[in-house]
Amino acid sequence: MDKGKGVVMGRRWGVEFTDSSTTNSSRDIPDPPGFSRTSLDQDDSTLSRQKKDTEANWKAQKAWEVAQAPFKNLMMMGFMMWMAGSTVHLFSIGITFSALWQPISALQGAGKVFEPYKDSRVDLLGPKLLFIALNLGGLVLGVWKLNTLGLLPTHASDWVSSLPPAQEVEYSGGGIPMH
């Protein structure tokens, strides 16, 4: 037999769902008290509403999980910065700039992160605010590490080159010239 060319065979078993008998059928029996045939249609709408509610709850839960993900990154980055030490060398500078870059790039893509969870029934304001707050915390951690390494200009001596020379207030002179 060639592929794609099926052979039509008669079915051995078949059930005919049309009622052509003249005897009493289930349609002639009255419905029990409290049952109506319209409730079956309502059950379908109730099931679809429950399915939509379940989907909305799932989306809200996943949005909160995504919002809390930067916390794990924050803890890992804090540990790596602690392990890097407080001296300026290649590893500590790399870790510090990674700690600065990750939150910045995450904040730039915050809208895209929550795109799959957009729904009219799901409030994304809380998860987005938490996501932003945790990433700002990561940014603060990176800036703190820059300060610890002494790479931020926070002291007056860091700005000495831009200060004008001090004016001389006092002149000393006098005495006896020796020739």
Mean pLDDT: 82
User: Spans with pLDDT under 50 lasting ≥5 residues?
Assistant: none
- What structural category characterises the helix and strand content? mainly alpha
Order of helices and strands: HHHH
Distance between the termini: 128 Å
Portion in helices: 40-55%
Query: Which word captures the global form?
Result: rod-shaped
Percent strand equals under 5%
Helical run tally:
4
How many strands in all? 0
Q: Specify the biggest β-sheet.
A: none
Radius of gyration: 38 Å
How would you describe the overall organization of this protein?
This protein is mainly alpha-helical. The chain has four helices and no strands. Helix 1 packs antiparallel against helix 2. 10% of the residues are buried. The mean pLDDT is 82.
Layout of SSEs?
Elements: H1 38-84, H2 90-108, H3 110-113, H4 125-149
Helix pairs in contact: 1-2, 1-4, 2-4
Quick structural overview:
This protein is mostly helical.
Please name the defining characteristics of this protein.
179 residues, mainly alpha, 0% strand
